[in-house]
Design brief:
This protein has one domain: 3-Layer(aba) Sandwich (Rossmann fold), CATH 3.40.50.880. 20% of the residues lie in helices and 18% in strands. The protein has helices spanning 45-53, 67-70, 111-127, 136-144, 183-188, 246-255; strands at residues 15-18, 21-24, 39-42, 57-60, 76-79, 131-134, 149-150, 175-178, 191-193, 201-202, 210-214, 220-224, 230-233. α3 links the parallel β5 and β6. α3 (111-127) crosses α4. It starts with 14 loop residues before the first strand and ends in a 14-residue tail after the last helix.
């Protein structure tokens, strides 16, 4: 006989929240002009595809949601890449900020996004759910914890702002070495080549964060919070041609954080 309550006891996949950008529909070529001033939220689909492939359920996190309430439901969070963090959040030079609405230029500084993502980082840390910061997301994690940034990396032997777009495993010289015994080392191994699309980087680490990966020129490429399932990477795992394990790590770690009401598995009598 079939257990009548079996449908209430199905194993559920971890719910992974993804942050993104907000911009005017008028920026999309071919959009109906009547919708031009309406706003839309978006993240790169590559994240969703790879999270789903790893066994998670990707969901968009709009700025309007309350981060603490989100983290009552989420099993993991990705703070995604994008524009520079506003320098006022880390004591940088605010003269570089132009008077451009981020809704009209997705590359412009966006304090609404900064506020939302910083609050989401704090909520995820308080709820002790796994967190992955990607590129800008690593920098948001660092700044939220009181760290600072290098405002513009000088030219050097390693190129950090690639001229080509995704998908890419990066240039041969862009190799990240990871600290033995670190979470990054357990995920990526002793070293690996990665892609790179950034001109800023971690300077001073925020409270509790430690650097666990650098390129040969000393630029910070991974940080983590020892004792927590928190990892920041400066490259884009969603755009690596060869999967590097970052998103798979997040989904695996998040699987242990599925809400207890959802952990019972389907069974039959």
């Amino acid at each position: 006989m079939t257990d009548p309550d079996a449908s209430e006891r199905r194993c559920r996949k971890p719910l992974i929240g993804l942050t993104g950008r907000r911009f005017r529909m008028g920026l999309i070529e071919g959009a109906h002009p009547g919708y031009g001033d309406r706003l839309t939220d978006a993240f790169f689909t590559d994240f969703a595809v790879r999270i789903a492939r790893a066994g998670g359920v990707p969901v968009m996190l709009p700025y309007d949601a309350d981060p603490e309430e989100l983290c009552e439901w989420l099993s993991g969070v990705v703070i995604t890449g994008g524009q520079d963090v506003h320098p006022r959040y880390w004591g940088g030079d605010e003269s570089v900020v132009k008077d451009i609405a981020p809704e009209s230029d997705p590359n412009a500084h966006d304090h609404h996004r900064d506020d939302f993502e910083s609050a989401t980082v704090r909520a995820a840390l308080d709820a002790r759910i796994p967190l992955l910061g990607v590129c800008r997301g690593l920098q948001v994690l660092n700044v939220t914890l009181g760290g600072t940034l290098v405002p513009d990396l000088p030219p050097g032997p390693v190129r950090h702002l690639m001229e080509t777009g995704p998908l890419s495993d990066g240039a041969p010289e862009h190799v990240v070495d990871f600290e033995p015994g670190s979470l990054a080392h357990s995920v990526f191994g002793a070293s690996r080549r990665t892609n790179s699309w950034h001109h800023q980087a971690v300077d001073a680490c925020g409270r509790g964060l430690v650097v666990t990966g650098r390129t040969p020129d000393g630029v910070v490429e991974s940080v983590e919070l020892p004792g927590s399932e928190v990892l920041g990477v400066q490259w884009h795992p969603e755009w690596m041609e060869t999967p590097d394990g970052a998103l798979e790590w997040l989904v695996g770690a998040a699987s242990a954080h599925v809400h207890p009401r959802d952990q019972a598995c389907e069974r039959t009598a």
